[in-house]
Amino acid sequence: MKLCLINIPYLEVYGKINMGHNSAYPLGLGYIAAVAKERGHEVLLLDPEAEGKDLVSVVDRLRDFRPDLVGLSCVTANFTIACRWASVIKKELPVLLAVGGVHVSALPEKSLQDCPDIDIVVIGEGEYVVSALCDFIEKKELDLAAVPSIAYRKHGKVVINEKKGFIEDLDRLPYPDRTQVDVGWYRLQPQFERGKLHATILSSRGCPSSCTFCGNITTGRKYRPHGAVYFVNELEYLVKKYGIRHFHIVDDNFAADRDRVVRICEEILRRQLNITWFIFGRVDQLNDRELLGLMKKAGCIYILFGVESGNQRILDNIKKQVTLEQTEAACRLCREAGIRYLNSFIIGCPGETKKTAEDTVRFAISLKAVITGFSILIPFPGTAIFQQYYREKVKEIKDWSNWCSVGDDIPFDYTHTELSREELLKIVAGAYRRYYLRLPQIIRLLSFGFRPSVLLAYLRGGIGLLRASFNWYFASKTAKKTP
């Protein structure tokens, strides 16, 4: 049985503020490919945007490969692109076509209605669901009713099968299949660039936090970690096979289990891997001088904190379950440990006003992060905010291309905040200018560029962010209401 997996292009959703080529290896498809190959199926994994290929080239590859099943991966912002690609593929090839990802997992029925060329929606984690589809196809006994965690059409109506539980023992999964890509295709965003060959990697899935803006429904709320030895084995494998020395650990909640983080760090040091790594972190879990010191020693150089707001009432509204004092302490301890921290903030959370937004900008400046990002809250399908405020609005939505937190616009006028779209765009534009056009911040950025290649990358990233702020400011002047 032949399976082709395609990572749908994403960069065009940024519109005028696209900062250039950056991409990450599609881990989800890599895991699916690895499990399918374990089952004996032939797999072709395509990442056209990273490779610099267009849809015409992809169709030519499909004709040569002649797959039995094509799987597309997308999120909300590029779902419209996925529908366009699905239409072309179905016209050119008589093939069964499935789509997976967070958007279709949140809206399986709507996705099938919006895109008639999609045959199957894969809901949640796809490794064993896609492999089950492949097994049935190979045996020529395809009975979609027998496959859990999918949605499909039957007699013109959408059928949603019972959802299978999440994978509990992640250590039984093979490593993602990277054999069909060139690891050199992938580049981090400029603010994360290290001038080294890098890889994205997962050490856990799921996050037990209850943030109302988070649409983490494909991996769920239950924290499910790889064992420390399994994870460090994968790090060592990538070091030895590809010469990778810098890792972007993309867990939603890497430090949820302190003891496991300690074991990982000790194992990295014991094996003398000589690597650097970057994580996403919560300020309440990294208020720990001893832990941060060990992480630094083991190679942690960056932590991105999702701070979200500088107003405690707004943090409580979105159920972040952290305090401003914890954020200040975590940033201070990172400085003491010698770990560079980057902060991200969301403007336009439920209850946001000009006053609370101003609190956020001032708080961001006070934390002295080398890089800080400001984005407008997008109420993604699957989030508690979407369910509370916009569940009925989904029927009206035909185009999802504006659903990007760092795009040129926002999808529609919000009801969860008193701020208009014009005000939101203007606040974010002003936040970037106020944050970066200050002498202390410019000095901080320049001092961080301790090597020419790193300095160039960070200057490029800073210029891109300033350009984005001006685009958002002018977009606020011309924003039009859309359904």
Description:
By secondary structure, the chain is α/β, with parallel strands linked by helices. It has two domains: 2-160, Cobalamin-binding domain (Rossmann fold); 188-379 and 414-478, TIM Barrel. It is 41% helix and 15% strand. The chain has helices at 27-38, 48-51, 55-65, 79-92, 102-106, 108-114, 127-138, 228-242, 258-271, 289-298, 312-317, 324-337, 354-367, 384-389, 421-436, 439-448, 452-478; strands at 2-7, 42-46, 69-73, 96-100, 120-122, 150-154, 157-160, 198-201, 204-205, 224-225, 246-249, 276-281, 300-308, 340-347, 371-376. A seven-stranded mixed sheet has the order 2-1-3-4-5-6-7, with helices on both faces. The radius of gyration is 22 Å and the shape is globular. The two termini are 43 Å apart.
Quick take:
By secondary structure, the chain is an alpha/beta fold.
- The shape, in one word, is globular
| Largest sheet composition | 7 strands, mixed
CATH class of the largest domain: Alpha Beta
Strands ordered across the widest β-sheet: 2-1-3-4-5-6-7
The CATH architecture of the largest domain is Alpha-Beta Barrel
Class by SSE composition: alpha/beta
State Rg: 22 Å
**How large a portion of the residues is in β-strands, by DSSP E?**
15-25%
Helicity range of the residues? 40-55%
Query: Mean pLDDT across all residues, rounded?
Result: 90
CATH topology of the largest domain: TIM Barrel
Could you name the CATH homologous superfamily of the largest domain? Aldolase class I
